[in-house]
Amino acid sequence: MGSPTPGSAPGRPPRSSPSKEVRPIGGSSRLPCVRRSCRVRYGGTPRPSSGGPMTAEIERLAREARGRISDRILQTPLEEVPSRFLPEGVERLWLKRECCQLSGSFKARGAAHFLDRLLEREDAAGVVTYSSGNHGRAVAEAAAGRGIAAVVTAPDSIDPSKAAAIEAAGGELVRVGSSSVERYQRAQEIASERGWPLVPPFDHDWIISGQGTVALEVLEEIGTVDHFWVPVGGGGLSSGCAAVLHHNAPDCQLHAVEPEDAAPFARSLQAGERVTLESTASEADGLLPLAIGERNWRLLRASDARSVTISEEQLVASLVRLRQQLSVPCEPSGAVSVAPLLAPAGGAPLPSGRHVAVISGGNVDDERLERLLSAAPRLP
Fold first, then answer.
1. Quick check: is 107 catalytic?
2. Could you state, in order of their start, the residue ranges of all structural domains in the chain?
3. Bridge partners, residue 259, by sequence
């Protein structure tokens, strides 16, 4: 298993030194987040792939994870965007609304899977993790559901709504500076002091495969997907989905999207090796690692994932369109994946075909959200 990789730094904006019918969204009616039980009915035999044993193992674990965590997560809505919002060349677009997931983000999947595997192997009175917010909340809620304690180290600048949710779940919140290196080190100290396991946020097979269940649900619902868009920070969601798609939909291209000033994956691809940035900055406060996880990097490379970077203007425009026109309750990080489609910057034409974008989370402080939306230019 890969070891956890720290990474984010300070600043403002947040910085770091075939199937059933799929409902359309948008228009005059508001479609709420529909919370449904996750049904395990994905089938089929994985296709041969050149991804190697690493991607095959993650795909196998993701299939197992679906059964293990089916009673602890939701099968989130997959809803189609009306054609009037689509740029030229994009045939159809669905949004996988992980903003409607338990804990408000996809992180609930990896946290539930990790704790299920962990507590099967050892008795633990509690767990420790480090997080910018969403992973910490997911771990705190998963731990509470299993009757154990959780300590979360987080930045001083953590979104107030995320801090409140961690504490509401019974988590012990420890604020540690502005860098994830600091909170990672403090989490290690606490874990050692208490003798509790450390739950990494992205660089671990149990976390990665738990997040990969997102792609399994999508394939189950609509079958053919040509392009799959996900945000990338540390790489848990993107690498898990990449491995699943690589073996079950090898013709599907995964696009890993990140802010241009917080783009360790893009910079690593340019360098031909995994690199660590000196700083990152974006309103997408959940996507500010200084480096992508080691294991996540290897999986994305093996799966031929493509890198896409977006500007802050695209991010905010995507957030506005999702919130105000499509009634999708997302946070800034959750708007990143679909920004190239809902707020294209021009240049090269977008690929045609059937697209899915994962709206990764919806946890954001009301005052911060109002500031972002009120300052944004009006969309057509």
1. yes
2. 52-105+204-375, 107-199
3. 310
Name the active-site residue from 8, 132, 157, 318. Answer: 132
Asked whether this chain's domains 52-105+204-375 and 107-199 adopt the same fold, the reply is yes
Catalytic-labelled residue, pool 16, 107, 180, 282: 107
Which architecture does CATH list for 107-199? 3-Layer(aba) Sandwich (3.40)
Asked if 219 and 249 count as a contact pair (C-beta separation under 8 A), the reply is: yes
pLDDT in tens, the chain (380 residues): 444 444 433 333 455 543 333 444 443 333 345 433 332 222 333 344 456 899 999 999 999 999 999 999 999 999 999 999 999 889 999 999 999 999 999 999 999 999 999 999 999 999 999 999 999 999 999 999 999 999 999 999 999 999 999 999 999 999 998 877 889 999 999 999 999 999 999 999 999 999 999 999 999 999 999 999 999 999 999 999 999 999 999 999 999 999 999 999 999 999 999 999 999 999 999 999 999 999 999 999 999 999 999 999 999 999 999 999 999 999 999 999 999 999 998 777 899 999 999 999 999 999 999 999 998 887 76
Q: Alpha-carbon torsion 217, 264, 142, 120, what sign?
A: positive
Query: Is the whole model's pTM more than 0.85, yes or no?
Result: yes
Q: Is 269 exposed, middle or buried (0-12, 13-18, 19+ CB in 10 A)?
A: buried
CATH of domain 52-105+204-375: 3.40.50.1100
